[in-house]
Amino acid sequence: MADQQALDEVVTFTSDLIRIDTTNRGGGDCQERPAAEYAAARLAEAGLEPTMLERTKGRTNVVARFEGTDPSADALLVHGHLDVVPAQAAEWSVHPFSGEIRDGVVWGRGAVDMKNMDAMILAVVRAWARQGVRPRRDVVIAFTADEEASAEDGSGFLADQHAGLFQGCTEGFSESGAFTFHDGSGRQIYPIAAGERGTGWVKLTARGRAAHGSQPNRENAVTRLAAAVTRIGAHEWPLRLTPTVRAALTELAALYGLEADLDDVDGLLEKLGPAARLVEATVRNSANPTMLDAGYKVNVIPGEAVAYVDGRYLPGMEDEFRATLDELTGPDVEWEFHHREVALQSPGALQSPVDSPTYAKMRAAVEEFAPEGHVVPYCMPGGTDAKQFSRLGITGYGFSPLKLPEGYDYGAMFHGVDERVPVEALHFGVRVLDRFLRTA
Predict the structure, then answer these.
(1) Taking the complete model, does pTM exceed 0.85, yes or no?
(2) Counting Cβ atoms within 10 Å, is residue 298 exposed (0-12), middle (13-18) or buried (19+)?
């Protein structure tokens, strides 16, 4: 059982890590090394031998192995990223890199995504070292760089260049699962992620005839681009149900006493009310235009215009995604993947079994400390480092337990303003993580 020191340390470590600014703007200027050194020092104090690895100077990853009692058992990977997305201090109630602890809440960028989980991992393994605890399976711990961009300096680099550090790992877990979802009617739902949509960030390029802005121009690159962007933004993607999403809909329907009519998913989602938020983003592919870049003077029609689209596709649906983009962009606009995750499955998207012993143990760990909760599977609409680690044959889950109060909008914390996490949620996370890892 996690001791009081572990409960104190998870709060301290979360705050300390937040104060280390590891902002990843995607241009390669992020420096995770100070956070990696902090994590490695905490692991070394627990008697582990962390390895620090860099593909690019300052983009540091940490890997360590906690040996289990059964050398014949498959190893388990637990991983968390050290980088965070940017934050504009003027928009926040507190400075985003203050790590301030106020009224039982830890504030700052990374409080949920995902320095809280990094801190939980550190607190648990240090408690084990104090208590002489060894899990059954080897537990490999990885703190990664660059998850918030391409992962090329992080999990991608580790999977491609240092696979030996993960020898024996068959399953792994990381962020975005086992958090409290309040449905507004008193139910507390704990979704555990057993799948991820693939990430395909797309660059659109329209070319035309550069000319004076006062002249007629039927080859206007901006017009061509705008038309393609409009078509993409307005497109209604068809319904596509993966096994993970089917399981989620079936369990949610049972929880609410509804018939799981998967022939009328939109009708079922409507009946689920707020709980529909757990699945509605993962019943279809999606493509959302996010950036535009065209022109250099108001009276000059440019010869080229560029846009970017955040594309996400379900397992097995990348070919459909590509074909749809071909159709929507049309003959006057070219498209290419600006960034595309490559996973062992699909490619680029993941789904993991919800009937596995590991999933059952995750469920049991949550139910022990939240007996009033209802655990359900779900598919993450976004992506994590699990895709890169899947190249090593590692099945990935989202399991970063937090018990959250009603009114706390977990989803809004990711990349949002005033990101924060309750101290009690961190304590719950340590207890659940400790319970799961001991029994896994």
Answers:
(1) yes
(2) exposed
